[in-house]
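In response to the reviewer comment on reproducibility (Comment 2.3), we provide here a single inverse folding case reported in full, input and output, so that an independent group could reproduce the run without further information from us. The structure tokens appear first.
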């Protein structure tokens, strides 16, 4: 089968091995990441294309050349389909473009049949590059579709990758955007030979370069740099500091009272009835401290139903989160108003993670009201939530907010504050990692962690805010 070795064939074999190797490395690093899965799929399609490109360039038998070339073009179709999906995953818009992706994949499935049966009117040797087809009318239509997909993907990368991100994330998308541009420019040189233009498609080597750069970008996106890891630890330490401050205040008072009672007992001048009363007071203070310690032990502990599904009690979640910010609320003179029915159903998810969500939101509200204000907490059972019921003006939905949500989203919580609100230009960045307006005092991870935990547990979160009118975070959870 291998009759000769050509420059184009060797380049394709290198592309095949490189893409397959990188795809497997990224996939093994995190088998559950959609980014890693789609990257592996994309690389597998490139490897498929490159392998048959190598075989086509390495045989002298006409029948084999034609078969290998056809499978090579099937690979081209698959590459574009995988690239479209990968781009929407990279910009975190795949849930918003489900119908578009389904239509794209269906058209490309049909195009695979065309790539094997309908794209060729005849075959002939072209220049020194081997046997090439003469394109059919059907191929002309496919080539238009190929460019539509490619241009559309670059628009999505530019619009949602470059324009909507800053700092580290923007740099990563710049690497992806320009590397993809080089790879597709190199791959597109193959089309020139179809139309009788003598341009050697040696720039196919850009495909392997792109796979390497994309692997680097994904690696950095999923596995944070040391500075970013330190920022996460700083954010966690700030949370621990808040819990420690609350515990210090809550435990210090009963300890002080116990000390006073012990001084009275040591005096030995109390009557029997006074001894009994004092012992009762000491017991109450000890019970109080034990309750505080138990509350801390229950913080971030999951609750599981009889069916094995984790369930969270919203009353306990909010009560525990408020307990740990109670001193901050008092210090800043912030009034808390809670509206929640007693019989609100439990929500599906990890109770400890929900407590962290609400604790972060309450801390965020406290920081927004340094001179006092009102913290509103409203939870209610809702019916069907359709896209039309979510206000569009001043709203920044999280990645899973759009689409056609089902009735399983049944419990809605709204956290409001009377702070200065969020400027319009900051709304689109509010849930992005490392985005902060607090200078060195902020890590830019609080709301990013909130969004991640909410969506991890099947919920969704968005922000409604106008400058000078406070902020309103809305969360919707599954009740089963």
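Designed residues, in position order:
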């Amino acid at each position: 089968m291998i009759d000769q070795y050509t420059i184009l064939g060797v380049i394709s074999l290198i592309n095949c091995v490189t893409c397959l190797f990188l795809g497997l490395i990224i996939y093994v690093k995190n088998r559950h990441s959609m980014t890693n899965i789609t990257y592996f799929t994309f690389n597998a399609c490139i490897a498929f294309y490159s392998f048959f490109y190598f075989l086509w360039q390495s045989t002298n038998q006409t029948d084999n050349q034609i078969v290998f070339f056809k499978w090579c073009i099937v690979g081209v179709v698959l590459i574009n389909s995988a690239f479209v999906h990968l781009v929407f995953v990279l910009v975190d818009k795949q849930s918003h473009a489900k119908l578009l992706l389904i239509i794209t994949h269906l058209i490309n499935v049909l195009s695979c049949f065309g790539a094997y049966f309908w794209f060729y009117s005849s075959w002939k040797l072209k220049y020194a590059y081997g046997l090439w087809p003469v394109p059919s009318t059907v191929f002309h239509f496919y080539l238009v579709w190929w460019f539509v997909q490619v241009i559309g993907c670059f628009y999505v990368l530019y619009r949602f990758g470059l324009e909507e991100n800053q700092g580290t994330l923007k740099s990563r998308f710049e690497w992806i955007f320009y590397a993809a541009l080089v790879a597709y420019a190199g791959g597109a040189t193959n089309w020139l030979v179809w139309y009788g233009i003598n341009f050697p498609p040696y720039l196919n080597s850009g495909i392997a370069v792109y796979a390497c750069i994309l692997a680097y970008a994904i690696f950095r996106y999923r596995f944070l740099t040391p500075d970013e890891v330190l920022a996460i630890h700083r954010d966690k330490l700030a949370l621990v500091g808040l819990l420690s401050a609350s515990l210090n205040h809550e435990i210090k008072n009963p300890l002080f009272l116990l000390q006073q009672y012990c001084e009275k007992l040591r005096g030995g001048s109390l009557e029997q009835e006074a001894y009994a009363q004092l012992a009762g007071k000491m017991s109450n203070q000890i019970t109080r401290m034990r309750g505080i310690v138990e509350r801390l032990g229950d913080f971030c502990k999951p609750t599981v139903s009889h069916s094995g599904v984790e369930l969270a009690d919203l009353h306990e979640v909010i009560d525990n989160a408020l307990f740990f910010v109670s001193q901050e609320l008092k210090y800043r003179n912030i009034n808390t108003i809670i509206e929640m029915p007693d019989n609100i159903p439990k929500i599906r998810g990890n109770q400890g993670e929900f407590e962290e969500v609400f604790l972060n939101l309450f801390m965020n509200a406290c920081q927004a009201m340094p001179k006092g204000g009102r913290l509103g907490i409203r939870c209610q059972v809702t019916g069907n939530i359709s896209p039309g019921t979510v206000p569009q003006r001043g709203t920044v939905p999280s990645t899973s907010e759009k689409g056609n949500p089902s009735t399983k989203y049944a419990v809605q919580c709204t956290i409001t504050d009377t702070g200065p609100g969020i400027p319009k230009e900051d709304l689109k960045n509010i849930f992005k990692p490392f985005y902060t307006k607090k200078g060195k005092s902020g890590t830019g991870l609080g709301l990013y962690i909130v969004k991640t935990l909410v969506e991890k547990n099947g919920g969704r979160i968005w922000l409604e805010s106008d400058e000078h009118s406070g902020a309103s975070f809305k969360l919707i959870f599954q009740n089963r």
